[in-house]
Automatic annotation (TrEMBL), chain B:
Heterotetramer of 2 MoaD subunits and 2 MoaE subunits. Also stable as homodimer. The enzyme changes between these two forms during catalysis. GO terms for molecular function: molybdopterin synthase activity. This is Molybdopterin synthase catalytic subunit. It is an enzyme of class 2 (transferase). Pathway: Cofactor biosynthesis; molybdopterin biosynthesis. It comes from the Bacteria. Belongs to the MoaE family. Pfam families: MoaE (PF02391). Coiled coil: none annotated.
Length: 81, 141
């Protein structure tokens, strides 16, 4: 299955794109998707370790199972205000 | 009611929206782009669905935690020049003590929970993302 991953903040700059599509095996989890993202942007590995993940307007845990039609939104450390 | 906007923040409008004769205290906090180590502008980006939700939750939680009557939070996105406001907090309450405390708590919590990122642009042409903090989830207490 394929999952779309939207990037934010410094992750966009490191990847050079605003979103990615990653191929995953069936019954994959958010953690599997993050591992696939790290393979695509290895220069962001340290940032991905401290990145939260959202689906819609909610944060999700890395052990969350994926169906394949989700859009994962990566939330690197925030700096608003 | 948008709490995240790419338009200039309007403090007067927020003050008018929260006008209340029962409130003897009004605290307004504004965060602005400042001249710091050669910064000439800051580009603010956000993940809007979660940012809007988090800002609304912080407003409600501030109202629950403190003896106040109104709390409004708005955050700007886009490229802001020196002196432009990036965030505004407006709190009204009966008395100054809890009103000051509520405004402080609201801006501190906003910085922890709202998915906004800033990229500083410098006079020498460089730019860099500000190191942030891991986003915090809404507390249960």
């Amino acid at each position: 299955m394929q999952v779309t991953v939207e990037l934010n903040g410094v992750l966009c700059r490191l990847a050079g794109v605003q979103s990615l599509t990653v191929d995953l095996k069936d019954f994959a989890t958010v953690a599997d998707a993050m591992a696939a993202v790290e393979e695509r942007i290895p220069n962001a590995a340290d940032r991905l370790e401290v990145t939260a993940i959202a689906i819609g307007d909610s944060l999700v845990h890395r052990n969350t199972s994926l169906m394949g039609d989700e859009v994962l939104v990566l939330i690197p450390p925030v700096s608003g205000g | 009611m948008n709490r995240l906007t790419d338009q200039t923040l309007d403090i007067e409008s927020l003050i008018a929206q929260t006008d209340d004769p029962d409130c003897g205290a009004l605290v307004v906090f504004g965060g602005a782009v400042r001249l710091d180590d050669g910064v000439k502008a800051i580009d603010y980006t956000a993940y809007a669905p979660l940012a809007e939700k988090a800002l609304a939750e912080i407003e409600q939680e501030t109202l629950q935690r403190f003896d106040i009557r109104h709390c409004r939070l708005v955050h700007r996105t886009g490229l802001l020049k020196l002196g432009e406001l990036s965030v505004v907090v407006v709190v009204r309450g009966g008395h100054r003590g809890p009103t000051f405390e509520a405004a402080r708590w609201a801006i501190d919590t906003l910085k922890q929970r709202v998915p906004v990122w800033k990229e500083e642009y410098y006079l020498d042409g460089r730019s860099t993302f500000v190191e942030g903090q891991h986003i915090q989830e809404k507390s249960e207490n």
